[in-house]
Amino acid sequence: MAAVKLSQGELAEAALFDYGGRSPLALIDIGANLADPSFSTDRQEVISRAQRAGVHAMILTGSSLKSTSKAAEIAEQSDYPIFFTAGVHPHEAKSCTENTIDQLRSFAKHPRCVAVGECGLDFNRNFSEPAVQETWFAEQVKLAVELRKPLFLHCRDAADRFVSILREHHLTAPAVAHCFTGSQRELDIFLDLGLYIGITGWVCDDRPERGGAELASILKLIPEDRLMLETDCPYLVPRTIRPSKARPRRNEPALLPHVLHAVAAALGEDPEAVAQRTTANAQIFFELPGFQG
C-alpha cells in the first residue's frame, strides 16, 4: 500500500500534539511573514491553528512596500490580535526610491503598525549593494526616530557597520535584533547597544554546521527583560519536530511553542516562566494591548 502524503496543514496540525506542540501560556510571535504568498490559500486556517497552539497575538513582518501593504490588509481584516511592521529588508533596498520613506511613514501611522522595519544590513548575500543597503537602513532608522517607533532589525555578517549606523542616531524607542543567529561577540555588542533579541527556530537546529547549539549556549547572556520569541515563518521550521518526515515544509505561527520549549531547555527553566516573560516583554516593547493568557 502506498504511503499517504500529508498536506502542509495536516502536518502542522499534527505538530500541535508533538512535544512542545502547545504553549502552557499565551505567546506572541513577534516575526511572522504571513504576507508571504505561501500562505495565500490557507491564511485563515494558519491563524486558527496559531490560536489553538497558544499563540494569542502575532506581528507580521513588512519587508518591502508590497509585503507591508499586504500585512496591513491582513491586520485590518482580522478580529484576531494581528499587528504589523513597516519596512524594507536589506535584500530589497535596491528597490527603494525617493518616495519609499514617505510611503513607509504613511504605513507607520496605521493604528496596527507597531514598528519600523524589517530593516538593516545583510552582507552575507548582498542581494543589494552594501552602500545601497546602508543608505536605506539609515533612512529607516531616521524614520523610526522621527516617529518614536520601535525598530525591527535584520543583521547578517555586518555587525560592525550595523552598530555604527545605529550609534549615529539617538534612538527614541527600543529596537530588536530579529532572528538573532550571531556569535557571542555580536550578542555582547547588541546588548551593549540596548537591543532586544528575537529568537527563532534556529535554536532548534542540532546540525553542527548551522550553529544552533552555539546559539543555545549563549541564551543565558540575554537579560530576562530583553528576550522575545518568533517563528520568522515560513522559514526555519523547528527541527525538534521528529521524525523529520513529520515536519511541515513551511513554518507557521502554530509552531512557535517548539521554539519556546527549545529556549526553555537551553535556559534550564520551565516553559511557563519563559512564556510569561517573553510575552510580557513583547507587550511592553511593541506597546500591545493586554489580553488574557
From TrEMBL:
Coiled coil: none
Cited InterPro entries: DNase_TatD-rel_CS, Metal_Hydrolase, TatD-like, TatD-type_Hydrolase
GO MF assignments: metal ion binding; single-stranded DNA 3'-5' DNA exonuclease activity
SUPFAM superfamilies, A to Z: Metallo-dependent hydrolases (SSF51556)
Swiss-Prot/TrEMBL keywords: Cytoplasm, Exonuclease, Hydrolase, Magnesium, Metal-binding, Nuclease
Domain of life: Eukaryota
Residues that bind a divalent metal cation 1: 118, 232
GO CC field: cytosol
Record: residues binding a divalent metal cation 2: 154, 178
Keyword Cytoplasm in record: yes
Family statement: Belongs to the metallo-dependent hydrolases superfamily. TatD-type hydrolase family.
Record-linked PANTHER family: DEOXYRIBONUCLEASE TATDN1, TATD FAMILY DEOXYRIBONUCLEASE
Annotated protein name in UniProt: Uncharacterized protein
Source species of the chain: Coccomyxa subellipsoidea (strain C-169)
